Amino acid sequence: MPTGLVVARVLLFILVAEHAFALFTPPYGIGVPQAFHLSFGILYAWLAVKLPDGRPWVRVLVTVLLAVQFVGRIVVFTVIDDPWIRLLLIIGAALTITVVYLLWFCRPVRGVFR
C-alpha cells in the first residue's frame, strides 16, 4: 500500500475522531448537527477501511463527502466566532485538502484506483 494511501487513511480516521468529539460538545441534543456528525463519522470510518480495495467509487464518495464538509466548514466559520472552533475548522479544512490531494494527485495513490 502506498505511503500516501496510508496517510489518507490516517487523516480520515482523524476526521472520524473529530466527528465523535463534535457529538460530545454543545449544542447537546438530537438534531441536524448531531445527525451530520454521526453519519459522516461512520461513513469516513467505513470508507477509510475500504480505501485499500482500490474501488474508484470509494475515492469519489470520499471526495464528495469531503467537499460537502468543506462547504459546511466555511458556513460554520462565518457563523461562529469562537477562536478555538475556528482553529479546529481551519485544521479540518487542511486535512480535507490534504486527503483530496493524496487521492487525486499523488501518482502512487492514483495507481491504486485504476
Please work out how many helical segments DSSP would assign: 5
> From the alpha-carbon coordinates, what is the Rg to the nearest angstrom?
14 Å
Major sheet description: none
> In angstroms, what separates the terminal alpha carbons?
14 Å
Number of domains: 1
Can you count the beta strands? 0
Structural class: mainly alpha
Unreliable residue runs: none
Q: How are helices and strands ordered from N to C?
A: HHHHH
Mass-distribution shape: elongated
Helix content: over 70%
Question: Would you kindly provide a written description of the structure presented here, covering whatever features stand out?
Answer:
- The chain is mostly helical and 114 residues long.
- It has one domain.
- The protein is built from five helices and no strands.
- Helix 1 runs antiparallel to helix 4 and helix 2 packs antiparallel against helix 3.
- The longest helix is centred in the middle third of the chain and has 24 residues.
- The radius of gyration is 14 Å and the shape is elongated.
- The mean pLDDT is 92.
